[in-house]
Amino acid sequence: MIDFFNNYGAQMMRLIWEHLYISIIALGLGVIVAVPVGILLTRTDKLATFFIGLASILQTVPSLALLALMIPFLGIGRFPAIMALFIYSLLPILRNTYTGMKGVNPDLVDAARGMGMTESQLVRKVELPQAAPVIMAGIRLSGTYVIAWAALASYIGAGGLGDFIFNGLNLYIPELIIGGTIPVTILALLVDFVLGRVEKKVTPRNHVID
Amino acid sequence: MIEFKNVSKVYGDGTKAVDDVSFTINAGEFVVLIGTSGSGKTTTMRMINRMIDSTSGEILIDGKDIKKEDAVQLRRKIGYVIQQTGLMPHMTVYENIVMVPKLLKWEKEKMQEIAERLLKRVDMGPEFLDRYPQELSGGQQQRIGVIRALAANQDIILMDEPFGALDPITRDALQELVKHLQEEMGRTVVFVTHDMDEALKLADKIAIMSEGKIIQYDTPDNILAEPANEFVESFLGEDRLQQRSTMQTVDQVMVKRPISVTSDITLGEAIRVMRDRRVDTLFVTDMDNVLQGLVDFEAINKNRKTASTVQDIMSHVYYVKSGTLLSSVADKMLKRGYKNIPVVSEEGKLEGLVTRASLVDIVYDTIWGDDEEVESIPLETTQFSESE
């Protein structure tokens, strides 16, 4: 154990950083794209079925295959890996944004509109605050997925803790496999915990009291 | 003033929610739209703030076509109260009350002041400002819902079954409150309900709707007195129609233009009028027909030698103003033994006379109801008494 840290400690810190870096950028892009799209979809029911269906199909493509598919288009390295993870993060966020917005009590929407809110005020002041816990739950789910899948990104040369796991597999060094897997799990749990706290924070008071 | 001119709302599948409706709501009036579900009453109301757009016809507010106005700006000028309060659970009571003022970018002090003042009007202290809606009782929540619709000085308030979900006692208190606020502040209220008691209690005018059309649009008294058709009658229900005599005013039963003389005529002339018209009392008025008093046969007989004009001998008379409820007049007649009571206008002019015979008519109506029974029963009695 101590030997492992002596030999690989510095490298491990670098890989953890890479891993987080890839994941956070992918998740961040996912939020930036999926939340607004999810909101727009609540305004057009026909498009919603199509887009959510499309995102579901993308989700079914095996992650390793998706990474491999990136190579002919984007080459290898960090960028294609981030793109693949971003695509994976979309569905849970998109779906939760859509259902969360749709689930807002219609009386509140009616009252807000009837009192003279514009569509954007309605979204910002009523629907988003009310849907925030559901949307946040989607982001949290995507977050843990992305951390776990980012391990595969090393396969196309993106780095991250996947480097340890793949090296271990190729060179038959179990310590490396374990040394990659455990930090990935801990990272996933940590991200889940942090996003869980955020989720609580954005939950309006009415949900706590109900 | 809100004017509906041949307004219809037809949905894509051909259903007519509102069918060629025309009516006018005057400024400051409390108008209740009533009907069964699917009668188009809510649709009619929601077209006023363009939550639903009409498919044909036009709606004018103070002469301006609302379709030419921006819907968002229009709505900010119209208060809106819905059944399930529509209070924002993530906003405090204060934030809820000043929602529209905030949209209109009012100054903070002004908003704070108006929120406190309105809360006070509904008997709630400033300590409620920082609470959240779900910490309040249902009645308190709807009080906030009501004052939220008043906060930006809206001239028109739309209310969609606002008290439907409340218990009877709370509902009663809120009805009183809303009626009081409306009268005090002079706002125009358009109120949707399916509860006839609520409509009769609150409305200046009631529009009874069925299948997208307005069947009758009139004051509660007139609707009770003269239901337009069987549908309205059945909607009012037997009980209320039976009770209508208590809702009647003296104007509806009084004898018009009772026999009167001016105060300057001589006793001899007065006696002649009595003889010609076969009466034993005369009402005395001045030249403008303002009621002065009463002279009866006995007084004339007693003072024949000493007095010259009726002015000298007329006695005071108990009278009521036009518009007085018949029930209260009947009460006085029976308890104090007046034979008749004159009815005067606001300016004191003699308009009519409620006699004991008018009361008999009412009792007769209430007991016998419709005409057929009334004809058959007395006939039998007459025959019976003859054969004895």
- Provide the CATH topology of chain A: MetI-like fold
How far apart lie the N and C ends of chain B? 68 Å
What is the radius of gyration of chain B? Answer: 28 Å
What is the assembly state of the chains in this entry? Answer: heterodimer
Low-confidence stretches of chain A: none
Number of strands of chain A: 0
Arithmetic mean pLDDT of chain B: 85
Any idea what the shape of chain A is? elongated
Query: What do we call the CATH homologous superfamily of chain A?
Result: MetI-like
Order of helices and strands of chain A: HHHHHHHHH
Spatially, the strands of the biggest sheet of chain B line up as 6-7-8-3-9-10
The CATH level-2 architecture of the largest domain in chain B is identified as 3-Layer(aba) Sandwich
Specify the structural class of chain A: mainly alpha
The number of helical runs of chain B is 19
Task: Report helical residue fraction of chain B.
Answer: 40-55%
Integer average pLDDT of chain A:
88
Based on DSSP secondary structure assignment, what is the total number of beta strands of chain B?
17
The unreliable regions of chain B are: 371-388
What percent strand of chain B?
Answer: 15-25%
Based on CA atoms alone, the radius of gyration of chain A comes out at 20 Å
Protein name (chain A): Osmoprotectant transport system permease protein
Domain ABC transmembrane type-1 (chain A): 16-195
Organism (chain A): Alkalibacterium thalassium
Pfam family, one (chain A): BPD_transp_1
Structure summary:
Chain B: This is Quaternary amine transport ATP-binding protein. The complex is a heterodimer of chains A (210) and B (388). With 210 residues, chain A is an all-alpha fold.
